[in-house]
Give the backbone structure.
Amino acid sequence: MLRIGLTGGIGAGKSAVSARLAERGAVIVDSDLIAREVVAPGSEGLRAVVAEFGEQVLRPDGALDRPALGLVVFADPAKLAALNAIVHPLVRARSAELEGAAGPDDLVVHDVPLLVENNLGPLYDLVIVVDTADDVRLDRLVRRRGMTEEEARSRMAAQASREQRLAAADLVIDNGGTPEELDALVGEVWEQLKAHQAEASDRA
Ligand code: ADP
């Protein structure tokens, strides 16, 4: 099994790349998605979050009120740490479960937005960076994801720079072109990943 860390700045196209890798048969472990699953209504995680922060972080329908929780934790590092202490172990356990279900020939792709910021590269056999110029990301975030320009700029500024990310990359996917061009580049990377995996299993 080859374990791959996929990262890129917000709006670079990680989701676009992971969807294309999934179509080719990769097992995708998406930490943002898992972080939402582990605090879904009825979950052990949501019960723990409510025990810590109170019913004020619930919406009337019983789901987690993320903006309300955000107001609490982003104003207080100790509370953010308390939230992470609940959510991170659950995310790790669920990721391990998904990975454990993958077969020896599978390519397991972890979608990790803050891989570079949190220095997580060593956890993976290979790091793929989706690289897209800042002005293109900004434009996509505003036009396609409906963010305000200010919101997009501040989210981008809080992350690693393009140069820092590229320095951590084993493979780079340039997503400055059209979706069709991205298809072709992901196809090339898929072949490279398969070749890496074949080499690794020859060595094993
Ligand atoms: P990330 O997961 O890295 O934040 P996304 O994959 O969500 O980024 O991409 C950001 C936005 O740009 C999405 O709306 C996506 O559909 C769009 N997008 C991604 N790649 C391209 C592309 N090559 N051309 C045009 N739009 C794209």
The pocket of adenosine-5'-diphosphate is lined by residues 8, 10-16, 140, 144-145, 175, 177-179, 182 (CB under 6 Å).
